[in-house]
């Protein structure tokens, strides 16, 4: 419902242009600028810093207050009382499941964890040294070649089956991409284990010996997935929506999301954080790196700090920090030198004028890499784990868009190239 409107006057333009303003249930109002086109103007907002591209009911972030809500529930409460699969259900269906719905859902997901045997052959085409994100872009996109039975995006039931398949198969593909890199046999999923426990089994189990499940590590894995599950219209989710707006099949859209996530400014940051901590190497070098981060003429950035939306402590980083200590206790590695550097770096950055003034707080990626490393994951798997955790977010945004009226996403531009000129005839 339109409650207010904005009135725009433009130099040299005879009319005042009235633009409706809409309010959501939380957060800033938005000005509907669609009407500007008929007056001969586009809006200009590189990086979408002030642009709401859609309506959504899934996730709300108040970056100034450090609040993250999924379907209204605060992330801290979900991390404490819920689990990853329940959150997947919540993101997709809008409400928490009853006990019976939850059991059914877990059962459905567990029974979709295997991938088609034919898909195994795709892996042979990748070099052992291939980055697992490169493999994920390929094999997730390739799923669309296997499930022709459920690719009608207008059919609600087809969409549901696809969402279940994606959530169920992502850990299997992620673990396969790792096993391929180390030349070990793929481990078939085990449906007697939990979602996170099964992922750890497929990653670290081997056919030669019994796998011993650690409840603490399984809980930490579940929490890592949960904390990454959704983050409203971030770059990869917006990519999924944009790809989906063309009517592309959902596997192709998620493959597009995985590609967008890979960059170091987004999901690739967890890998970059660990590489950077390793490069810093010792607490005595921290000052040098802080100085570089503050130098305007140096492109160097402190990875794991700052966020487009959070101008306060990322609430996910707090939970991640607690999980970090639980994992270190379980593994008995409190003295990890990288954790010490990370703690010191965090302390300095929270007190340093540059970071305080620019509101550069630790983000979710700051601690996740340290935990994952302690759990035995190689650094290049970190972003794959982010992608696995983010799948319900991507897919629920895709489903939300496809379920309602939507238009193909087609931004405009400010053209600054050559004006029309004639091809030179020689
Ligand atoms: N280290 C040093 N300076 C920084 C940093 C940093 N990590 N982040 C931002 N700044 C400075 C930046 O130089 C700029 O300074 P100035 O105003 O003097 O030019 C100011 O802070 C604002 O930065 P920005 O690039 O305009 O902010 P943004 O909202 O476009 O970028 C960001 C957000 C996350 C890309 C950026 O903070 C960054 O590159 N951080 C490091 C990478 C990182 O940790 N990414 C993970 C994000 S959380 C996971 C996810 O959601 O994907």
Overall shape: it is globular
Radius of gyration: 23 Å
Quick check: average pLDDT? 94
Small-molecule binders:
carboxymethyl coenzyme *A
Largest sheet: 3 strands, antiparallel
Would you report the number of β strands? 6
Helix content: 40-55%
Q: In which order are the strands of the major sheet placed? A: 1-2-3
Order of helices and strands: EEEEEEHHHHHHHHHHHHHHHHH
Spans where pLDDT lies below 50 across 5 or more residues: none
Defining key terms:
single chain, 426 residues, mainly alpha, three-stranded antiparallel beta sheet, 6 strands, 6% strand, globular, binds carboxymethyl coenzyme *A
Overall description:
The structure is a single chain. It is built from 17 helices and six strands. It has 426 residues and is mainly alpha-helical. A three-stranded antiparallel sheet has the order 1-2-3, with no helix packed on it. Strands 4-5-6 form a three-stranded antiparallel sheet. A hairpin with a 6-residue loop joins strand 1 and strand 2 (16-22). Helix 6 (156-182) packs antiparallel against helix 17 and helix 8 runs antiparallel to helix 13. The protein is globular, with a radius of gyration of 23 Å. The N and C termini lie far apart (62 Å). The mean pLDDT is 94. Bound molecules: carboxymethyl coenzyme *A. Carboxymethyl coenzyme *A (CMC) binds at residues 231, 234, 265-267, 269, 293, 301-308, 358, 360, 363-365. The site of carboxymethyl coenzyme *A has 20 residues, from helix 16.
């Amino acid at each position: 419902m339109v409650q207010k409107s904005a009135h725009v006057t433009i130099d040299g333009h005879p009319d005042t242009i009235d633009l409706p303003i809409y309010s959501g249930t939380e957060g800033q109002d938005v000005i509907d600028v669609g009407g500007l086109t008929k007056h001969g103007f586009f809006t200009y907002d590189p990086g979408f810093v002030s642009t709401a591209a859609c309506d959504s009911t899934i996730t709300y972030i108040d970056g100034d207050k450090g609040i993250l809500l999924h379907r209204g529930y605060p992330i801290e409460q979900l991390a404490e009382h819920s689990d990853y699969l329940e959150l997947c259900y919540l993101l997709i269906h809008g409400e928490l499941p009853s006990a019976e719905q939850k059991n059914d859902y877990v059962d459905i997901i567990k029974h979709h964890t295997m991938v088609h045997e034919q898909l195994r052959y795709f892996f042979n085409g990748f070099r052992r040294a291939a980055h697992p994100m490169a493999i994920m872009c390929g094999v997730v996109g390739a799923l669309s070649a296997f499930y022709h039975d459920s690719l009608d995006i207008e059919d609600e039931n087809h969409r549901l089956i696809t969402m279940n398949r994606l959530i169920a198969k992502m850990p299997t593909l992620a673990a396969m991409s790792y096993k391929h890199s180390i030349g070990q046999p793929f481990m078939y999923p085990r449906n007697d284990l939990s979602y996170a426990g099964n992922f750890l089994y497929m990653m670290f189990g081997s056919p030669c010996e019994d796998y011993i499940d650690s409840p603490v590590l399984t809980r930490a894995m579940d929490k890592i997935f949960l904390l990454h599950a959704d983050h409203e219209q971030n770059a990869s989710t917006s990519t999924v929506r944009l790809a989906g707006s063309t009517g592309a099949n959902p596997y192709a859209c998620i493959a597009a999301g995985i590609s967008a996530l890979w960059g170091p400014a987004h999901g690739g940051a967890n890998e970059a954080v660990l590489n950077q901590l390793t490069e810093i190497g010792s607490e005595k070098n921290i000052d040098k790196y802080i100085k570089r981060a503050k130098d305007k003429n140096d492109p160097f950035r402190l990875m794991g700090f700052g966020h487009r939306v959070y101008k306060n402590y990322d609430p996910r980083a707090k939970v991640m920090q607690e999980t970090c200590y639980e994992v270190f206790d379980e593994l008995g590695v409190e003295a990890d030198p990288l954790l010490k550097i990370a703690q010191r770096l965090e302390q300095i950055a929270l007190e340093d004028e540059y970071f305080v003034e620019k509101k550069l707080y630790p983000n979710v990626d700051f601690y996740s890499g340290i935990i994952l490393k302690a759990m035995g994951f190689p650094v290049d798997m970190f972003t794959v784990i982010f992608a696995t955790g983010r799948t319900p977010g991507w897919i629920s945004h895709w489903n939300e868009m496809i379920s309602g009226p939507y238009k193909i996403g087609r931004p405009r531009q400010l053209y600054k190239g050559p004006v029309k000129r004639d091809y030179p005839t020689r």
